[in-house]
Design goal:
Length: 699
């Protein structure tokens, strides 16, 4: 015990010395990124280290003094869209992003805004984004800050001035590609993928020279048309393996497999790990009618960072048809599994199983459910394949499949944290079922999502008792998970789903924001809630911790948004009061800042006009609404608190004004494009009829 105390007292000044001298270390280079864990004062890359643990060793703030944790500074953004960024902190400077891919640099101790950058993403890009106009953050390397913009550019900024150094267009802007993920830099190459798996794109990840922006390699996650090579790093494995796992004319549909979030790197093995998304369209009868595993959908890929060369893959959901992505955070760790120390990769993807792979070979070591799951009874360790429930194949049975989890996942991009002291992984878990029903009249549309799944049939019945039951079934909790024994250690129940990402610290604390707008701290061992701060808006992003001049800070970016409130509407509304804008909040022991009183969000409510359509017309309008509008404007025309509630818009009063917006795109620069290419003026006016009926029902 004495020895232990002595070591601690010797280490304490050392930790402060690290914090103090970090500013003399020069720009972030490969060595600093590889050794990021040895700089507790900094948060150098998205998951803090290449292993993406999201664990800060800082221990100044702990259970004994958490009551003194107060606001140090805050910064208001210019938007009330969703905020998902993880800030980066390098030697006292914080770099973060806000919605619409805007970048800010702050003095991390004072909150002074050093510079900001607006990539001027065209508003109409919003319709290509399934899940809000969010951005999850930047990468910093060699004096530059890298951001992927919603419209598909990768931009390098001067870290001192915020001036643009180079910009590379990484996508075909005629297709519905978007970037929301944070870049990573490995060995002088900037890595970024993209989203669009609900819109018929073909997924890939690219590597770009950090100095020039020139593309070094590209790996497509889905094969192209047989016989047509891309000249890319994936050509060989597609010919050898992936091409045979598809059927029909999948290349016409894009196929999906987007790399929209997670990337990890093991410098020792020199392997880059990439999480791959769902099939596009969801319904496999459309994209690959003869079946097949559809590699590399819903897979983890191991690639060489220098060349993009394929090394191994593990597919979680062969032939995915439930939007079960493998894009969730991957954590690299060394763990004793069944008695022997293994280099593992861990992931808690949407599908509800906690996967542990050997990260050298891709061998599946373990997979157990961390949340309620009904689509598969187990993952067979011998074959590595799920034992899928026959009724889950909604395309084959012709019946609805009430799935658990649904497409929003038991866990999505909301970051989890692996605490090296408790050995526990803290996961933001949700219980959100979904009825998958094949769209038997599917026709692809030019604008908006194309799923092959009937979102109208799946919409919330407007019966009060049924609504109550559905809402009661939607839950969320912070789960402490023991990965070695694959079992729950503790949980903290939240009021709803859609809660924020997680940080754990050397002070024995776990930090997480919730959908109601509370930023909370928990005891990492027991789950006891120790502290809470009301942020005035729902929280979905993950906190970070860093130190400046020997003082430990906690920062969280807040702002309600993302897919949960956009899609689910009414069920996401758990608090009435929301701040109009997103914010950066930074906390320190004995901070003295206070937030201004929240402005009441008073939305002008226009009384609905008389109904003009027949019951059949309203029903048709409802079907079109849920086919093309509901994914953003909310189930059954109820806003989940991000976009204006269409039940109360004055535009309902005028067929002409409605058509100018919904048909011709008068508000395209705000993100609301016209749907005149996909629907006739009469059809578009029936959407208005349906919105009027919902407005009258809601009076
Ligand atoms: Ca998806």
């Amino acid at each position: 015990m004495i020895v232990r105390q002595l070591r601690l007292s010797l280490l304490a000044p050392l930790a402060i010395a690290v914090a103090a001298c970090s500013s003399s270390q020069g720009p972030v280079d490969h060595d600093r990124l590889v050794n990021a864990d040895s700089e507790p004062a900094n948060w150098l890359t998205h998951g803090r280290t290449y292993s993406e643990e999201r664990f800060s060793p800082l221990d100044q703030i702990d259970a004994s003094n958490i009551g003194d944790l107060k606001l140090a500074w805050y910064h208001d953004f210019d938007t009330k869209r969703g905020q998902e960024a993880t800030p980066i902190v390098v030697d006292g400077v914080m770099y973060t992003t806000s919605a619409w891919s805007k970048v800010q640099a702050f003095n991390a101790a004072t909150g002074e805004l050093l510079w900001q950058y607006d990539p001027e993403v065209p508003g109409e890009t919003a319709v290509k984004a399934c899940c809000d106009v969010v951005n999850r953050g930047v990468a910093v390397y060699d004096g530059k800050v890298y951001v992927g913009t919603l419209d598909g550019r990768l931009v390098a900024l001067d870290a001192e001035s915020g001036d643009e150094v180079w910009a590379t267009l990484t996508v075909d802007q005629d297709k519905a590609y978007t970037i929301t993920g944070a870049p990573r830099v490995v060995k002088g190459k900037v890595l970024i993928g993209n989203g669009g798996g609900e819109y018929g794109v073909r997924g890939y990840i690219g590597a770009y020279d950090a100095q020039t922006g020139e593309e070094a390699w590209r790996f497509y996650t889905v094969p192209g048309k047989p016989g047509e090579k891309d000249g890319s790093a994936s050509d060989e494995i597609h010919e050898k393996l992936a091409g045979d796992t598809w059927s029909g004319e999948w290349w016409e549909w894009g196929g999906g497999g987007t790399v929209w979030d997670s990337i990890a790197y093991d410098p020792e093995l020199d392997l880059l790990y990439v999480g791959v998304g769902n099939g596009s369209p969801w319904n496999p009868d459309i994209r690959s009618p003869g079946g097949g595993d559809n590699l590399f959908l819903s897979s983890i890929l191991a690639l060489r960072p220098d060349t993009g060369e394929y090394v191994w893959h593990y597919q979680q959901v062969p032939g995915d048809q439930w939007d079960y992505t493998a894009t969730q955070q991957m954590i690299l760790a060394d763990l004793p599994i069944k008695g022997s120390e293994r280099k593992v990769l861990m992931q808690a993807p949407k599908n509800g199983f906690y996967y542990i792979l050997d990260r050298e070979t891709g061998e599946l070591l373990s997979a157990e459910p961390f949340a309620p799951v009904n689509w598969a009874s187990e993952i067979d360790l011998e074959s590595g394949r799920p034992v899928i429930t026959p009724d889950a194949y909604y395309n084959k049975t012709g019946k609805p499949w009430l799935a658990m989890p649904g497409p929003l996942g038991a866990h999505s991009w909301h970051s989890m944290s692996f605490n090296l002291q408790t050995g526990l992984v803290y996961i933001p878990v949700q219980e959100l079922g979904f009825p998958y029903i094949a769209d038997t009249n599917f026709e692809p549309k030019k604008v908006g999502v194309n799923l092959g799944v009937d979102l109208n049939a799946a919409s919330l019945p407007q019966d009060d008792e049924i609504k109550k039951q559905v809402k009661a079934g939607i839950k969320g909790h912070l789960l402490a998970w023991d990965p070695v024994n694959q079992k729950e250690a503790w949980r903290f129940e939240h009021k709803s789903a859609g809660n924020g990402g997680v940080l754990s610290t050397g002070g024995g604390l776990v930090f997480q924001g919730d959908a109601e707008g509370n930023f909370n701290a928990f005891n990492a061992s027991s789950g006891e809630k120790l502290w809470s701060f009301f942020a005035q808006t729902g929280i979905i992003a993950a906190p970070i911790s860093y130190a400046v001049d020997g003082k430990q800070y906690i920062t969280i970016v807040v702002g309600w948004g993302g897919i949960f409130p956009l899609l689910t509407g009414e069920v996401a509304l758990i608090t009435g009061e929301r701040a109009p804008k997103g914010r950066v909040l930074t906390f320190v022991l004995d901070g003295t800042a206070t937030l201004p009183e929240p402005e009441a969000l008073v939305e002008a409510r226009s009384a609905p006009p008389e109904q003009f359509a027949s019951a059949a017309g309203i029903a048709k309008g409802k079907a079109i609404y849920h086919r093309s509008c509901g994914a953003c404007h909310g189930d059954s025309v109820v806003s989940g608190g991000v976009l204006p509630d269409l039940r109360y818009t004055p535009v309902l009063q005028s067929a002409d004004a409605w058509y100018a917006i919904v048909g011709e795109g008068a508000l395209a620069t705000n993100g609301m494009v016209g749907f005149g290419e996909d629907y006739s003026p009469e059809e578009l006016d029936l959407i208005r009829a349906y919105a009027i009926s919902r407005s009258r029902e809601s009076q």
